[in-house]
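does this look right to u?? adenine version
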Amino acid sequence: MRRQHSSWVPDARTIRAFRRTIGDFYRTHGRAMPWRETADPYCIIVSEIMLQQTQVERVRDKYLAFMKAFPDFRTLAATPLQEVLSLWQGLGYNRRAIALKHIAETVVESYDGKAPASVERLRMLPGIGHATASSIAAFAFNMPTVFIETNIRRVFLHRFFEDREGVHDDELLPIIAATLDRKNPRRWYYALMDYGADLKRRVPNPNRKSRHYARQSRFEGSTRQKRGQVLKFILAHTNATPGTIAKALNLPGQETMQILHQLLAEGFLIKSGRYFGVV
Ligand code: ADE
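got this back:
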């Protein structure tokens, strides 16, 4: 059953006060990030995809290395996937690297090397959902899009839903739209994200109030970690077999086979006889 949500929005005075709080915070505590110093859509797309599932501090160095190795869509499109995956090691969720490579190919083939400047078309690119397309449009093209990510959600839950539980994103979106600085959405969203990141340190997890809240599973010992280790091993060893992989990583044989078959089915690996290689 679809729940009906009220679309309450704050009054003009509350909006003004809220904007002032966020703006004041940003002036004194705004964070410098290399991808904030550019509006180049390529840089924005790479950084937003990296930031989807990885924290700012871990993204910073990888982003700089990535830009140095693959400075534009054309270079990335022309680079073998193996090289891209190799640089991606450490960020996790490798399918994002594959998506980025496909994005680069699509932009070169269908858009003459220039990213499309519309949420609808950005959204049609691999690995880009509505929120990422909207954030790219805001940061690269300064468009007044309306979207939610984890830091933004925390800000609105904390400020407008202090005494509520189970808040649906549909309730937050009209408030995000009503408070948005339409003259400078790019700066406004940086400010919101920084305020939200700071709240995380200051108050016990306001995102628990969200219906969309899911604690991220622990990485250590997870299948995701093992998949990463298997890929890394295969990248570094040309003659990797299930036996050598299991032994090197100290994994049970059956689990190793499971992981290998999954990676094979998802298109990360190829198999030639007993040997596995990265696509
Ligand atoms: N600045 C630009 N995009 C960001 C993001 N996704 N997370 C944090 N800071 C950002």
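DSSP finds 14 helices and two strands in the chain. idk if thats expected tbh
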